[in-house]
Amino acid sequence: MRKKWLGLGLSFMLAAGIAGCGGNDNNGTSDATNGKSDGGTATPAAEKSQPVQLKYWTDDRHDQEYIKELINKFNETNGDNIQVELTVMSENYTQSVDIAFSSNQAPDVLRLKSANTSEFVKKGYLAPIDGYLTDDMKKKFGSLLIDNVNRFDGKVYSLANTGLTMRLVYNKDLFAKAGIEKPPVSLQEMVDDAKKITEVGKSEGIYGFALNFKNPKQAFDRSIREILSLSGYQGLGFDMKTGQFDFAPYSQVIEYFKQMHKDGSILPGAETLDIDPLRAQFAAGKIGMYLSFSTEPGVYKDQFPTEINWAGALAPTLDGQIKGTSEIVSAGTWLGISAKSAHQEAAWKFMQYMYGDDVLKTYHEKGFGIAIVPSIVEQAKNPDTNGMEGFLVGDHDSLWPAAPSVTPEGSNYADAFFKYMISDGDLKTITADLNARYNAALSKAVEKGEFTVTPNPAFDPSKPQGE
Q: Of 142, 143, 164, 465, which is most buried by a Cβ count within 10 Å?
């Protein structure tokens, strides 16, 4: 595990939220309230005289047993007569929060993610926590306060816990079978390796590469995003130096993906493949490699147990040279306090307990998420989950400034590039069209006051935190 952390000093500021990776933001209808259903509600301790009752809502299911244990312990040991009730959601989480706030039934504490924090702040759902932060907490989390992620208009609404790293996931046995000694470091090597694996395994239904192309944006955001950030470019098509969208680097990566498709190295039917069916095929030893998040070790431990010999490695870059850092995504947020809570001080005491060193350290060690808080990274042991060692935060991982999320007229970049990848077209024309439409959408958003974009000509992709 990495035993150091780069300080955060962002000079590129945006006044709107970043849309995070969609694959990890389950939205939810309650399936565990007041002890019903699958037991997602922690049982309060024995009643005391007029306890302060807090409601905590989350859409995380993977860690609910651990969170229930923590809440039970808090309920039993806190000296302020506070009792917390946990509700775990499964679907439509954001909509459920909207309904709760509009009907004056909002929870006191909410699970926050990069995909919903900005909207919750805009809607007035969250209370700033600056006044509660002690000097020790400012020191502990200060390097991880990011504008438009957990800090908006100078006010802090949440603190970091974990983040998702992105890696190349590969079958070591298939690599060996094809005579490949190590994972590819350049995109040309990835193309060549995918072709070799397909040549030796096609008769057994084995192919060199796959992605969940049923949703091109999800597929590219878990693959090209890391390739570009390691190559020195922002992974979603935005140029930090100019403050404009520029999909030219993206188009370079697409050419290599198109070549794999032309070579027949991509698993047939990938156009309709979702991520879980892809994982099932990988677990069965039918895919040589794909790119994804640090959720994969847990998937192959619990959801799709496998005996194959696999590992995670840094994604290849455009030319084999690392000129940037792999972006840690879905980082910066965890818990937040409702602006409508009648017990905000009690909510903060619970929140402060949850952000304690022992809680965060154990959260990482149990494999629920990869710690990014510097002091926790220093002291936590590696999770006891097969394959996790390849996903731990290292010297080539860091947080990037938030990029603007806009919706252009017409197709998005992923759909446009995927269409080119599986068919024909003029890539320069496609790229120019994307640049024009995305920058037009950005200009409109700036005019409406949704964003404040400040170009940073000195932006260094090898030090995106500005240290």
A: 164
Phi, psi of 93 (to 5 degrees): -60, -50
Q: How far, in Å, CA of 2 to CA of 377, rounded?
A: 7
CA distances from 256 to 138, 147, 224, 236, 261 (A): 44, 34, 11, 17, 9
- 418 vs 415: CA distance, rounded Å: 5
The structure tokens 């969609």 sit at 22
How far is the C-alpha of 372 from the C-alpha of 72, rounded, in Å? 26
Q: Two tokens at 229?
A: 């950030």
Handedness of CA 425, 428, 433, 438 (dihedral sign): positive
> pLDDT tens digit string along 297-316?
989 988 899 999 999 999 99
The pairing of beta strand 397-398 with beta strand 326-327: parallel
Q: Is 329 helix (H, G, I), strand (E, B) or coil?
A: strand
Which residues, at least 6 apart from 443, have a Cβ–Cβ distance to it below 8 Å? none
* DSSP H helices in 304-409: 344-354, 357-365, 374-379
Q: Phi/psi class of residue 5: alpha, beta or left (left: φ > 0; alpha: ψ in -120 to 50)? A: beta
Cα dihedral angle (335, 338, 343, 349), rounded to 10 degrees? 10
Q: Where are the alpha helices (DSSP H) in 51-148?
A: 64-77, 93-102, 117-122, 135-141
User: Are 411 and 375 in contact, with CB atoms under 8 Å apart?
Assistant: no
Tokens at residue 46, please?
């024995």
For residues 128-147, give the mean pLDDT.
95
Q: What average pLDDT score do residues 410-418 get? A: 97
Q: Using one digit for the tens of pLDDT, what is the confidence trace for 353-403?
A: 999 999 999 999 988 889 999 999 999 999 988 999 999 988 999 989 888
Q: Look up residue 157 and give its two tokens.
A: 């609404």
Phi then psi dihedrals of residue 211, to 5 deg:
-150, 165
Closest CA to 193 of 284, 292, 260: 260
User: Rounded to whole angstroms, how far apart are CA atoms 168 and 94?
Assistant: 31
Q: Which helix (H) or strand (E) holds 311?
A: strand 310-313
SS3 284: coil
CA 346 to chain centre: 29
Q: How far apart are alpha carbons 415 and 400 in whole angstroms? A: 24
